[in-house]
């Protein structure tokens, strides 16, 4: 394939890469006073990258001799990534201005992370996988410690860096084992080798690769970094971590298991089932005693990853389609939840993160209280809210392959998670009022909260035909 054709297939990454370099030069000469303009420029670049998916970059096939794949699966994941990243860019300047930490580098780091995430979801070779993952991670380490004078932020960045380096080492060791025992780094070659039988060396490689990727999606038992990093990082950064990189890592894990390890489904399915059960149980139980809303949402993220893994455990087209639908609804629920957290400010404008501060919110900020309740009920999967639908799909995929005992356990564990979501709603509506939050400053943030709430409300069911068709098209691309 000519290089020009390969470049056309990677157009979204080219737009983000070149655009980030241009904005970096603007930041170098204009300084931090241009942060808002650079942020909106970065949002425009994400929009341009999303539009590029309508061309060959959305369904053009293989590029660079099989290192990169442009198909419906990668397009679906990239669209979710770009939307989540753009929203976290829009709400960040106001947050950093209030805290005196405005830096022009923030949107550029998000853009470079977006390039890495795009490579992750399109990777069809273990080397492309690793390069994309590291590009995303290097930007994320800086973002976690972005508020340098805040000890919690610095601690979050250090923890994320140390544990991320460990996970990268584990992943790289697994890749080297797979290369050593299969003789190739291409997903197709690995799949062919696995089809001939799974040797001991290949089994160890499979386990190490899945362990490294489990860290990136914060699945139990590789979840230990998540609550501390989510609590310590600035709230817009936490919203970013909980959405875009999570989608990228989950899509990458799905492509690796289905395309590269399809011949060893029975082997990786056991690992995925264990991680799914452990994540749903720990994510539900550990959240009950939390007093910080960001830590609670971190455990909520772990809990939701468990449910996504149930869909992957099915190993079928319906299972993968359920995974993609779940990720789409999860992004809306999580973005909306963190936008509500951004509204939690005291009279001086400083962030307030305790769950107790939400007491009686329904009497002081009824609209914000209603949005919070919608997101919490939807995260719990309580019908008729739209968060129920993806949970139904993943359990239906399990039943479709005869794994109904696992589906029953998953339904039981979802009840645990519902407890702490309902506890927040109870605090908002039935507890004595706490000191009122500062009034809303940004109509744009309010509009984004309203849009997210409408999507996860019963009105979201109107999107099922389009969302279901797109999810199934994405799933077919892997089979």
Automatic annotation (TrEMBL):
Catalytic activity: a quinone + NADH + 5 H(+)(in) = a quinol + NAD(+) + 4 H(+)(out)
Keyword Transmembrane helix applies: yes
Protein origin, superkingdom: Bacteria
Pfam families for this protein: Proton_antipo_M (PF00361)
EC number: 7.1.1.-
Record-linked InterPro entries: NADH-Q_OxRdtase_suN/2, ND/Mrp_TM
MF GO annotations: NADH dehydrogenase (quinone) (non-electrogenic) activity; NADH dehydrogenase (ubiquinone) activity; quinone binding
TM spans (from-to): 6-30, 37-55, 75-92, 104-121, 158-181, 203-225, 270-289, 296-314, 320-342, 367-389, 401-422, 448-475
GO cellular component: a single term: endomembrane system
Annotated NADH:quinone oxidoreductase/Mrp antiporter transmembrane domain residues: 123-417
Membrane topology: Multi-pass membrane protein
Coiled coil region boundaries: none
Family (UniProt): Belongs to the complex I subunit 2 family.
Function statement: NDH-1 shuttles electrons from NADH, via FMN and iron-sulfur (Fe-S) centers, to quinones in the respiratory chain. The immediate electron acceptor for the enzyme in this species is believed to be ubiquinone. Couples the redox reaction to proton translocation (for every two electrons transferred, four hydrogen ions are translocated across the cytoplasmic membrane), and thus conserves the redox energy in a proton gradient.
Protein name (database record): NADH-quinone oxidoreductase subunit N
Source organism of this protein record: Edaphosphingomonas haloaromaticamans
Protein's gene: nuoN
